[in-house]
Amino acid sequence: MAGGGGTRFWPLSRQKTPKQLLNLSGKDLMVNEAVDRMATVIGKSNIFIVTADVQAPSMITATQGKVFPRNILAEPAARNTAACIGYAAMEILRKYGDGVMIITPADHYIEDVPALTEIFKTAIITAEDQDKLVTIGLKPTFPSTGFGYIKYDTEINGFIKPVIEFKEKPDEETAKMYVESGHYAWNSGMFIWKASLILNKLKEFVPDIYADLETIGDAMNTPKEQEVLHNIYPRIRKISIDYAVMEPSAAKGDVLVIPGDCGWNDVGSWDMMDILHKPDSEGNVIVGDVIAIDTKDTVIYSKSRIVTAVDVENIVIVDTPDAIMVCKKDKAQNVKKIVDALNEAGRTELL
Known about the structure:
- By secondary structure, the chain is α/β, with parallel strands linked by helices.
- It contains ten helices and 16 strands.
- It has helices spanning 30-38, 56-62, 80-96, 113-129, 172-181, 195-205, 207-219, 225-232, 241-251, 335-344; strands at 49-52, 72-75, 100-103, 109-110, 133-138, 149-152, 161-167, 184-194, 255-260, 264-265, 285-287, 290-293, 299-302, 307-310, 315-320, 323-328.
- A five-stranded mixed β-barrel has the order 5-8-6-7-9, surrounded by four helices.
- Strand 15 and strand 16 (323-328) form a beta hairpin.
- It is globular.
């Protein structure tokens, strides 16, 4: 899944070049790192990317030689993850036949790729053998209030556990309780299941969305495929796969989780750059042409010109050719408010 706007990484992330098309680690674009991870599990010819219409040309260029252009599916409108995953499942089922799908975001960081590969292999076998929805839960390393949680049955032996329920992002006290109990994992947003099964679940729980996807599917492999897609897709109801399918399926006992530890992080905002870059002795993450004096626990990112800082602490400074962004480091999640304000002001050239 690579259709998000990455608004919390503005001004570096823009609509046409969102987080997944950025090289934040200094190694490769995040989407290419995701493709390379998946290639340890399946052949690259079986890797599909769902992205936004506006991002599709850049995505084709960015993944040249890694992903077939025909496997890059362009959404005419952003309709959240239920539509995105359902569209991909319909594409696979109608054009290639049924098969096990691994769904993973394109813009996450994984430190231990071999560990994730082994988790995926276990998940694939489970999804092939059982008519269950499988998700990956990550061992929480701290009481995060920015991630959703999965409660699972710890009494069951083995690597695979029945999911009891999904929990939304908690407050700090609740997050501490979750971590201390040992009954919860972070919700990674990674799923494994048969294409036919997820479509049946969409039909069961959100029949209106399934009906629209079925109309699109009926037009696949015909000259009217793109016309129908562009007419139908923008009207699909917006809802996440968690609300649409995972929560009601968990209540019926149809969801399994594989708790694991692979050094996962969603690197969702500027304050998490220390995941990708080792901080200096003062806790600063410095990228680009920067001079920082008496500066602590600060992220400074320069795209082109020199950025200087003196006597500052716990802030983020980002410089790009057309914008400068400054915020408190512990408020970095609020950068998306800038994007909302620019949108309301009609400053589309900055989006």
